[in-house]
Amino acid sequence: MWMLDNDQMDQNFVRTVLLVDDEPIITTLLAERLDASGFKTFVAHDALSAKQIAQKNDPDAVVADLDLGEGPSGTELIAALAAINPAMGFVLLTNYTPTASELKSAPNLRYLSKREIHNINTVVEALDSVMSTGRQVTGEIKPSVLSKLTKGQLAVLALMARGLNNQEIALERKVGLRAVEQSVHRIYMALELHKNSGGSNRVAAARIYSLGMGLRGGKP
After folding, report:
1. Are 39 and 71 in contact (CB under 8 A)?
2. Is the Cα torsion angle 73, 124, 108, 140 positive or negative in sign?
3. Is 210 in a helix, a strand, or coil?
4. Measured CA angle at 25 (ends 19, 30), to 5 deg
5. Domains in the chain, please, with CATH?
6. Distance CA 205, CA 207 (A)
7. C-alpha–C-alpha distance, residues 142 and 71, integer Å
């Protein structure tokens, strides 16, 4: 049996972002700066490869250019990925100014001008806003516990609480098994669960979710 201290927890709790732009210089710039800010990044230069990477790795958020050259646009890519995983966050790079109704109808979507991406703090703020769970946590646990999870991780935890195993979660979310295993690992790190035998981490995580969501008796 072993425990992780707080510094180790922070190092293991990594949020994942898929960067999509047909200009490699843009993805390289963003990847370097986001990696340095503690994110793990994946890169694609067209919608088709982006969808394949997303299904394999189940990122917490996607940053995509509106114009991806030949093939589907950034908005078409986002629509396709949102249909697969409604909990995924999206940042669309464009000079288009959305209306208030458009912003309200897409709470997981944030628009950024390409002129703003040179300020990494602005990009990180945008990612934080689309990955935040936005849920109020109640029950016997600290309010900050579930708030550490991204929307995607919270969706995985909800399925765990329903009793689904990793393979079943992968089928439900239409992603690869390895992506689910990585998400489960990050959930354990975020919830500060230590590794032990008997699979009790999964039970403990499900109970934390149930308590946090105010479910009766702390049961899913």
Report:
1. no
2. positive
3. helix
4. 40
5. 6-131 (3.40.50.2300), 144-218 (1.10.10.10)
6. 5
7. 46
| Among candidate residues 204, 62, 47, the one with its CA nearest the CA of residue 141 | 204
Amino acid at 135: R
Token pair for residue 169? 């979660």
Q: How far apart are CA 172 and CA 157, in angstroms?
A: 13
For residues 171 and 84, the answer to whether their CB atoms sit within 8 Å is no
Q: Which residues contact 74 (CB under 8 A, 6 or more apart)?
A: 20, 47, 64, 65, 66, 67, 68, 92, 93, 94
What span, in angstroms and rounded, lies between the C-alpha atoms of 202 and 193? 9
Environment class of 40 (CB within 10 Å of its CB; exposed 0-12, middle 13-18, buried 19+): middle
Question: Over its length of 220 residues, how does the chain's per-residue pLDDT go in tens digits?
Answer: 233 334 433 444 578 899 999 889 989 989 999 999 889 999 999 999 999 999 888 888 999 988 888 888 888 888 888 888 777 889 888 766 555 555 554 557 888 888 888 888 989 988 888 886 543 333 344 444 676 677 788 888 888 888 889 999 998 888 888 888 888 888 888 887 765 544 578 888 888 777 766 554 444 4
Mapped onto helix, strand or coil, the DSSP state of residue 98 is: coil
What gap in Å lies between CA 208 and CA 140, rounded to an integer? 9
Helix, strand, coil % over all residues of the chain, rounded to 5: 55, 10, 35
